[in-house]
Write a structure and sequence with these properties.
Blueprint (H helix, E strand, L loop, with lengths): L5 H12 L1 H12 L10 H13 L7 H12 L4 E3 L3 H4 L11 E3 L1
Parallel strand pairs: 1-2
Length: 101
């Protein structure tokens, strides 16, 4: 779970699934059921590099940071509803990203 998306996950979960589900997810996160990755300055630099390589593709900081974290930690599977942007980017340290669901 990248730290940069946690507020959005909390908001959308609360809005569409309810406060109890959002709190259960946060409890699972706090209990270590998910790996929590913070976005560091090195990741911001890598995200800017990705955004620069893909000029013309409207990659925002969140998407590019997720990609940067995935590359740094060698995480091939990415859960996203934004297949449009993620499918366009080829990681430099792996053959491809596997997009879920």
């Amino acid at each position: 779970m990248p730290s940069i998306v946690l507020p959005e996950v909390d908001y959308l979960t609360t809005k569409y699934l309810g406060e109890a589900v959002a709190q259960a997810f946060l409890q699972d996160l706090a209990d270590g059921y998910f790996r929590y990755l913070t976005v560091e300055l090195v990741d911001i630099r890598a995200a800017l590099n990705i955004m620069s390589r893909y000029r013309g593709v409207p990659l925002g900081l969140v998407d590019a940071s997720i990609m940067a974290l995935a590359e740094r930690y060698q995480i091939q599977r990415i859960f996203t509803f934004d297949r449009r942007h993620f499918s366009l980017v080829k990681p430099q340290t792996m053959h491809y990203f596997e997009l879920l669901p």
